[in-house]
Write a structure and sequence with these properties.
This protein has 396 residues and is an alpha/beta fold. It is globular, with a radius of gyration of 21 Å. It starts with a helix and ends in a 9-residue tail after the last strand. Bound molecules: magnesium ion.
Length: 396
Amino acid sequence: MKSRRLFLKTTAAAAATAFSLPSLARFAKIKIDESNKKAFVLNKFSKIDKMKLSWTPYNLQLKHTFTISGFSRTTTPVVITKLEYDDIVGYGEASLPPYLGESQESVIDFLKKVDLSGFTDPTQIEEIVDYIDSIAINNSAAKASVDIALHDLAGKIIGSPWHKIYGLSKYEVPDTTFTIGIDTDEVVKEKTREVMGSYNILKVKVGGRDDKRMIRAIRSVSNLPLAVDANQGWKDRHEAIEMIYWLKEQGVVMIEQPLPKSDLDNIAKLTEESPLPIFADESVQRLDDVERLKGVFSGINIKLMKCTGMHEAWQMRQLAKSLDMKVMMGCMTETSCAISAASQLYAGMDFADLDGALLIANDCFSGASLQHGKIIASDMPGNGVMPTKELNFTRV
Ligand code: MG
């Protein structure tokens, strides 16, 4: 068993390496020569500057109380990061829904351990994220907050938005789902009516006795396609398959995490029998998880906060596609900082759930925006983000 795990890990890592970006530094030089004189000068004279990392905790206020599987909340804590090099600034974010086990305190503790003094070139992304990952296990959102800021900074130095560096068209993206939380029929109908015209697909959180009632309430006011997220809430495969057939008749187009995350044998059978694609969310965290889920799920839900950021998200996307698995881009409740990062790399994916910044009342960044039901990246370099409020960054 151990050797099989090791084998899978090795092959996954080898496959991922094959899909990592071509030497970014080489690419960067070409771009810099052509389009960014300031960065070119900076590079040419090898000015030894240090990257400076700072951060600030921030609390997101949700527009509506959010309920999934009997758990409600009205705020989400985040930490915003800032990475400076010369006078160029990159921004990142860690989003910390309480059930994921990280907090503003744990993120700040992690960030205090980050020492970037050994790196003089912010476009050495591979080396820097390897170092960040080696600081401690887990802490995925904390790692993502550095990775996202680093990508924003490196993209600005290169003078290009990341979707162009990846070779993607920012418009060739799937519609984003808009999530309708578990609530009374009246509230569900009201929320659905409110968002009609802005979205082309809705997402429903299920996983309890109220599943059919929720779907019927939405169907009484809207014919939009629906994505369904059970958040591991169904416990029995036979009941789940019956439910999926019923949901298909109701215009549901995909199912996320129907059964508990470790119940892979039953999920594999369910996927085989299901008339709808089945996506892993809680069952997949990082790159090492992807290959063993081939044949178990139809596809995977990639989230920056689970997988330590854009560098690994890109590798997961490329590996999953090479394995002929479907891919979707998801998010937590996040500001436009992290959503804009996700918006750079999801062109060509099958589904998207990038409504995180649209659910909050106090977004503190501008960047990617909702256009005809899709989240579209900005044309500005890096991740295309700008703070819209004064944020007091500190470091020790
Ligand atoms: Mg989910």
